[in-house]
Design goal:
By secondary structure, the chain is mostly helical. The chain has one domain. The protein is built from 3 helices and no strands. The protein is flat. The two termini are 13 Å apart. The model has no long low-confidence stretch (mean pLDDT 81).
Length: 79
């Protein structure tokens, strides 16, 4: 994923695409699930990013897990 992240940073056509910026008022609470996007940028005094590793066996729909989708697209086992 780091290689993909770096590739997107260097990809000029991707960088020129229109991006959506969301701003929230002070004192509010919000949560976002960013597994379906290549990159999330957080800022703010109390911004917190956290990653949870969940075993595939614990997933309700493992066939929809990002790693399963990537394996199907690449035709290679990634774990």
């Amino acid at each position: 994923m780091l290689h993909f992240h770096d590739w997107l940073k260097e990809n000029e056509p991707y960088q020129k695409e229109e991006h959506t910026r969301s701003e929230f008022p002070s004192g509010c609470t919000w949560m976002v699930y960013t597994d379906g996007v290549p990159h999330a940028a957080l800022s703010g005094q109390y911004a917190l990013e956290h990653t949870y590793i969940v075993p595939r066996a614990a997933l309700v729909a493992p066939e929809l897990a990002p790693i399963d989708v990537l394996e199907k697209l690449s035709g290679t086992a990634l774990s």
